[in-house]
Amino acid sequence: MPNFYDLLQEFPEFTEERLVGYIEAYPEPEENIGQRFLPTEETYDINYHVQQIESYRTMAYLVNYDTEAPVKGPGRMREISGRIPLIKHKTMITEAEMYNFFNRRINDKKYKENMKNKLYGMVDGLLEGIQDVYEWLRWQVLAHGRLDYNKFGLKLSVDFGIEQKVTLTGTDLFSDPNSTPWDFLREQLKTYKSKNKGREPDVMVGSMEIFFALQGHPQTKSMLSLDGDRPASPEEMDTLFKLMGLPPFIVYDKEVYWEDPDNPGNQNFIINERLIPEERLLFLAEHKEIAGKEVGKLLVGPVREANWEPRIAIKAYDNLDDDAHPSAGFKGVGSAMPALFVPSTIAQFDVL
User: Fold this and answer.
1) Which InterPro entries does this UniProt record tie to the protein (predicted)?
2) Which residues have a Cβ under 8 Å from the Cβ of 84 and sit 6 or more positions away?
3) Per residue, what are the HEC states of the chain?
4) Residue-wise over 40-59: b if at least 16 C-beta within 10 A, else e?
C-alpha cells in the first residue's frame, strides 16, 4: 500500500523546499492587530531573558565649577527569563482517502485537483493555527498582563508587571447612566502620561459593547448636544475623542478556538476564548522606542523541524504502519514567547 510520502510525489507543490517558500510567503492576517504592539522578532536562542524598565532614566544635575559629579542610581530594572515554548499540532489524511487516490482515481484530473486543494487546506490550517497562538500570546500580555497556561505537560505562569489597572464598580461603570466615563478616561490619560514621560497612548482598544456604551451614554449626548434617543455616530465619537485629547478607539472582538486538551481531535469539545475580555478597555502604545527600549516583541524561536531556524515548519509524517494508531498527514511546529520591555505602556480598565 502506498504511503503519504508517495502521495505527495504526485504534487510538486508540497516538496519540502516548496513548502518552506510557501510558509515564508504566508503573512499573518491583518486582523491580528497585536502585531502593531508586539511584532515578531526571530531569535536563535531557545531561552529568553528580558529586562523590563520599572523607572525611566533621570536627568543629570546642574553643578558649580570644581564640584564632583553626583553618583546616580542605575534605575530599577526587572528581569524575566525562561525557555521559549514550542507550538505543535497536526492534521490527518485517512487511509481511505489515499486508497481512493491511488487505486481508483489517480487519473481523474478533477479528483487530483480536489486532493491538492485538500492538502493546501491542511497546510493553511496548520499555519493559521500557529499564527492564532502568536496572537493569543500577544494579548495575554496586552489584555491580561499575565501568561498562565497548563496543558500538555507545559506549565507557564508569568507576570508581566502591568501596574495601571482599574476595575470600576456600581455607578462608575460605563453602562450606568449616572457614571462619567469621559472624566474617567481623561483622568487615566493623565496617569498614563505621568508614567511614560509625557507620552500618550497611541490607541484605545476594546469591545463593541464598550463602544456602544459610550455612544449612547448621557454624558456623551450632553457633550455633543444630542437630543432624544439617538446615540452618537461613529464620526461624532471620533470628533469627541479628539476634542478630549484621547487616542482613537479600535474595536477588537476576536476570538480563538481551542480543542479541549482532554479530548484532542474531537470537534464536539471546542472552547472559544476572547482575546480581550468584553468589559476591558486598554490604553496601548504602538511599537516604538521609549527611553531607548522598544515596547516589546513576540520572540519566535528555532525549531528542530526547521533545521533549528526560527520559523514555522510544516512537515509530512506517515505512521500508517502503526497498527495501534495509524495516521498520516502534516505536522505544524513553531516556537514563540512574548517579551515586554516597558510595562507602563499598557493600561487596563474593566469598565462594564
Assistant:
1) Lambda_capsid_assembly (IPR053738), Major_capsid_GpE (IPR005564)
2) 43, 45, 46, 47, 48, 299, 301, 335, 336, 337
3) CCCHHHHHHCCHHHCHHHHHHHHHCCCCCCCCHHHHCCCEEECCCCEEEEEEECCCCCCCCCCCCCCCCCCCCCCCEEEEEEECCEEEEEEECCHHHHHHHHHCCCCCHHHHHHHHHHHHHHHHHHHHHHHHHHHHHHHHHHHHCEEEEEECCEEEEEECCCCEEEECCHHHCCCCCCCCHHHHHHHHHHHHHHHCCCCCCCEEEECHHHHHHHHCCHHHHHHHCCCCCCCCCHHHHHHHHHHCCCCCEEECCCEEEEECCCCCCCCCCEEEEECCCCCEEEEECCCCEECCEECEEEEECCEHHHCCECCCEEEEEECCCCCCCCCEEEEEEEEEEEEECCHHHEEEEECC
4) beebeebebebebbeebeee
320 pLDDT tier (thresholds 50, 70, 90): confident
Residue 265 amino acid letter = G
Question: Whose CA is closest to 150, among 261, 263, 270?
Answer: 261
Q: CA distances (Å), 164 to each of 80, 167, 187, 194, 301, in order?
A: 19, 10, 12, 11, 30
Instruction: Tell whether the model's pLDDT for residue 345 goes beyond 70.
Output: yes
pTM exceeds 0.85, yes or no: yes
- CA angle 46–52–53, rounded 5-degree value: 160
Which residue reads 496601548 in cell numbers? Answer: 284
